[in-house]
Amino acid sequence: MPNDDLPNWLKKTNHLELNNQVVKNSRIIQINLNIISFFIKHFQNEPIINNNKQSAWLKLISMLIILILVLCSNSNRFIWSVFIIILLQTCQLSVIQIERLGHNFIKMFLCSVIFVIPNIIIGNVSATLFFIFRLAIVILNVAYFLQINSWQQIIIGLKQLHCPNLIILVLDISLKYIHTLAIFLQENLWAVRLRMVGKPLNNQRIIGKVFGQLYLNSKKYTSEVFNAMLLRGYKISSVHKSSMNLKKADYSLIATNLIVIILFITIGI
After folding, report:
1. Which of 209, 201, 191 is nearest to 7 (CA)?
2. CA-to-CA distance for 117 and 30, rounded, in angstroms?
3. How far is residue 201's CA from residue 16's CA, in Å, rounded to a whole number?
4. Of the residues 117, 193, 229, 237, which has the fewest C-beta atoms closer than 10 A?
């Protein structure tokens, strides 16, 4: 059999170098697949929502009030008071919700504190530790809010607060199609890994092709969504407006916010 009929990767005699390159490329693809699979699994895990009768807009305002006051305060007593209040709210959740909240809190806190740790070496240690503690309270508050609210409830809350419909539309479509594009990218990476069996591939060409296909598919999905919205007669200005009515369950949340505000005025400044 003439050598001209064989592919180039079979003509090479240095099989050790070839195998090392294949293993290296396969390891890089597997790392990317693990990262994308983690984000897809995170998007697919919907929070377990109890029968929470509190208004969506009030829960959104409550989260923002606590965030602003904690970030503006320099008092240890106020930070500890807010921490105790959030823990009391967390105790009302189910065991599964508390477990998921703990996992989300740990992941978000570790990702955030990595950028603060170098300041302990080159900066003021006590001020950095206080900033980390305040950051932990902020992340715990956000994790609690995300655990008791679904994405649909957040959209309802933004509409009740009269947020511009264009911003709500962009947020809603972006969150949904990021998940779709992540699945498409995962399928492409699996296809690349299958094609790498027995031969190395050009990493630069693979990256260009994968991101090129991702861009073309995102453009295709965007055009299809836009055309579907036109056919259904979609208008940015919504006819139905959500009202900001208070319910009986909202008064406990209002009382909590008032307590936090009073604590900030007395000991938080």
Report:
1. 201
2. 29
3. 16
4. 237
- Band (pLDDT 50/70/90 cuts) for residue 82 is very high
Structure token pair of residue 149:
């609210």
Which tens digit of pLDDT belongs to each residue from 54-70? 788 888 899 999 999 99
Among 64-68, 161-165, 259-263, where is mean pLDDT lowest? 161-165
List pLDDT tens digits, range 177-234. 777 777 777 777 777 766 665 555 555 666 677 777 777 877 787 777 777 777 776 6
Dist. CA 160–CA 144, nearest whole Å = 21
Q: Cβ distance 70 to 138 under 8 Å? A: yes
As a whole number of angstroms, the distance between CA 108 and CA 136 comes to: 9
Mark out the alpha helices in 161-235 (DSSP H runs). 165-195, 203-231
- Residue 135 CA to residue 7 CA, distance in Å, equals 57
Give phi and psi for 200, each to the nearest 5. Answer: -85, 155
Tell me, yes or no, if the pTM score tops 0.90: no
